Amino acid sequence: MPHQPTRLVLTFAALLALTSISLTHATEPASYMRVNRPDPQTVQLQIAVRKFVPKEGAGPTVYLTGVVHIGEDTYYKLLQKHLDQQSIVLFEGVGAPEFMQIPKNTIKSKIARSTSAVDFTAIMITWYKLKTSAYPDSLNQLFEYTNKNAPREAAYLKRALKDAWNTPLQYKRNDKSFTLTSLGSDAKPGGRDHAADIPFNHKKNVAPIAKEIGASNIQLLLAQALGLKFQLNAINYDRKNFIQSDLALGQIRTRLAGKAPKDTDFSKQMKQITDLLKGGNAGMGKMVQLFLGLIQTQPKMAAMIKLTMIEVLGELKGDLSKMKIPLPGMENLMKTLITDRNNIVLKDLKHYLKSKNPPKSISVFYGAGHMSHFEKSLTKDLKYKPDAEQWFTAFQINAEKDGISPAEMQQYQFMAKMALKQLKQMQQQQK
Length: 431
Hints:
Elements lengths: L3 H15 L14 E7 L2 E13 L6 E7 L2 E2 L1 H12 L3 E4 L15 H26 L6 H11 L1 H10 L9 E4 L4 E5 L15 E2 L7 H4 L6 H9 L3 E2 H4 L7 E3 L4 H8 L7 H15 L4 H14 L2 H18 L13 H24 L7 E7 L3 H10 L3 E15 L7 H25 L1
């Protein structure tokens, strides 16, 4: 029988697997995630990209491009090639800063977008100060540090460093403070009306937001521990055809207001989950970091974790609704957020499909768990039909190369299912 420590490791690996995909709800179309076994030694986690065309008449080709947040370098390179070939890419970016959703088609919207970009950059400067006890010497230094330590935010920061008129933000600092300014439409200091400078207002208290930066670190650490890549590092989002289609940070706060349970136990549980995902200073966060550090020194353990994740994700097929969140009141809350996120994508998709000059192709680039819902709406409401599909291998293990015997392979696969069963039992105990 397997030793208890090994069983605990696999249960923990199953939990880590749940951080690598997006939460969604059950729907009818076939899953966008599968386990593939091309030979007795190899087990692969594969994600689908499906092509859709109008049932009648002409219209843009639509690709539903599923993704997992950690994978092999080759996987993301193939995805990047596919995405770069599309006219429009609607991509996932929950919690993105507001400027990502503000267009640049009017003077008023350009001022609003530039103001939001200045505010976000100021948040990142404040975060840098909290982390290093000094302000960055330059915005380039800020970006390099952010890219290494908070890649999710770095993807946004890269766009924020230029205002809506494509002029670099102006930054100066001393030991006690800093100035940050958009030069407005004329790209010159001073000016009036839309040409007026847009400085950061230090009356805005951005420190609380800055302290929250780094919520994606657990996924980055997991990818590094397993010798894989993190999606936000591997995919280049700085493309003209890439359009963020998700809830912005302010929208999340608005939707959460009044919807989360107020009891003390729920609040404590939510804080524990937040600390875990941030990999921060909480005891659980430190345990996660120590565990992932250990994996990096044990290649066989890393392969075991990957195998567990493949089996767990294959069983769930990317649909975490099959694994109910064991927190009172959390299920309805998460479904609300999921539905809102999906509706934003569908609204954007409909906009491009019905525009006077529609693009040639559109790719919806989202977590694999969202895709079945998108497919159902695309085929039922928007009158599209499947035309082709392609499966990409996100990551894999090879038992022979990874030093796993056939007996161990069977044992790990069995234990992965047992770990998933234990998680389900945990949820039952919460009822």
